[in-house]
Structures are given as structure tokens and as C-alpha cells.
Amino acid sequence: MRAYVNQLVLPSPPVRRVLPRTVAMAHPLPVEEDEPEQERGHHLHPEPYGAPEQQSLAWVRHPR
Length: 64
Prior knowledge:
mainly alpha
């Protein structure tokens, strides 16, 4: 195991791949999808927002 003492270790730059235009036109990526009306106003994890458990998406999708 190598010890790195007093050495600056920089992260690698992110790998980016640019698709050719013909491929990108044939397979467009959806930017954003509309959520169903019954899921509007609900959160995946409502606790950080101070919302009750009843406002979770799990509660809407699978009511108890």
C-alpha cells in the first residue's frame, strides 16, 4: 500500500461522450416527464420537508 503524505491528489475529470448527431436524433432523451395528477404535491421522502408520512409517494401508490 502506498502512503500519500503531503501530496495533493486531484480527482479525475468527468468522462464525457458526445453522441453523433444521427444517433442523438434517432434516440432522443426525455428531459422531463409530467407526473400523474394523483402524485402532485407528494414527495419521495417527505420527512426533510417537514411533511407527514401521508404525503409520501409510497402512501399514494400503495395506500394502507
